[in-house]
Amino acid sequence: MTQSPQNEIVFYNELLSEIKARIQQGQIRAVLSANAELLMTYWDIGRMLHLRQQEEGWGAGVIPKLSKDLRNDLPEMKGFSERNLGRMVRFYREYPGLSAILPQAVTKLGAGKETDAEEEVTTPILSSPDWLRLVFRVSWTHNILLIQKLKELDLRCWYLEQTIANGWGRDTLTAMIKSKAHERQGSGVSNFDERLPSRQSEFAQQLLKDPYIFDFLTLEEPFREQELEAGLVAHLETFLLELGAGFAFVGRQYHVEVGDNDFYIDLLFYHLRLRCFVVVELKKGEFKPEYAGKLNFYCNVVDDKLKHETDEPTIGLLLCQGKDRILAEYSLRGIQKPIGIADYELTQALPQELKSSLPTVEEIEAELVGELDGDEGTE
Predict the structure, then answer these.
(1) Quick one: which of 151, 98, 159 has its CA closest to 124?
(2) In 10 A of CB 350, how many CB atoms?
(3) How far apart are CA 341 and CA 292, in angstroms?
(4) Which string of b and e fits 86-99 if b means at least 16 CB within 10 Å?
(5) Is the pTM of this model over 0.85?
(6) Is residue 237 a contact partner of residue 168, using CB atoms and an 8 Å limit?
């Protein structure tokens, strides 16, 4: 509906006043629940903008002016750039059903008149209130990333759950989406169903990825298993993120004695949720049946020498550069210890001149820390 220029000014000033009031009211409650209040505020602003665009026929051109006025009138507030206001509109359009679970007070704050325009978008993408509540458990930047990268409901929900369960930061979430973590999760070959109690087997299988992505390493071919092992330990924090939540590093080339013989376990971890040791063996090249036997041996030794009475049975994880699944399944038959077999993938070897120009681990970590600190809950 087209309005006269004078009416447009009146309607615009009303909208500006409503949004300013909503922001200021949100500030009061932000002390109690900062992230949830921020998301509710942004959702409500998106709703206001959407409804006014539908009712008054305003286009996207109102957003630059609104952004400028909000930042002039509320200079202490961040997050009201043109881009972020546009994101708020999209946030509302993606999740109009959030109104069903928002506190009643939120609905009352700045709520305009109900119109047919709202009815056009009230079929929520997330149909279950349980799913919708997940939205409030991650940050604004996480939510926008998920909306931008994932259109499918089931995938968005899966990454929401994993972000909450694993404490993924925005950059980790980005990497997990890029590497299609949802396709890799729980897809390795294992005998967990036969060798672990039911309460553990399903969870352990879900922890098993296939393949594991070690794209943070830049090994040059030909490389040795020891170099792969050293690289993973050097990038331990990133390696632990790829393994998943709950892994605690115990040691590299962990020494155990059996009779008069010395043995060295490639990597030894303890899983805090499974309450067990995890022996990781790294192999360059394709899987071979004899690898499963040796890993079974190491699990036996750890159970005998390190496992406490309250610990669950040790789990073995064998990582190779490839495997024949049928061969791997046959190799696990008769193996008494719980073992998982999965592939790992590396990035292509980089030219030496390019490799020398890459930032150091310390430089990358400093950049990530600064970026996360500066972005959470703002633009």
Answers:
(1) 98
(2) 14
(3) 9
(4) bbbbebbebbbbbb
(5) no
(6) no
Residue with tokens 């008149």: 113
Q: In this predicted model, what pLDDT tens digit does every residue of 23-51 receive, in sequence order? A: 877 665 553 367 888 898 999 999 999 98
C-alpha distances (whole Å) from 160 to each of 37, 95, 165, 262, 352 are: 18, 14, 9, 45, 39
Instruction: Tell me the three state secondary structure of residue 122.
Output: coil
Rounded Cα–Cα distance for residues 124 and 129 (Å):
10
Neighbours of 66 (CB within 10 A): 21
Start-end ranges of CATH 3.40.1350.10 in the chain? 183-348
pLDDT in tens, 197-251: 888 898 899 889 989 999 888 787 788 999 999 999 999 888 998 998 889 999 9
Domain with residues 183-348, CATH architecture: 3-Layer(aba) Sandwich (3.40)
Between residues 280 and 237, which one has the greater pLDDT? Answer: 280
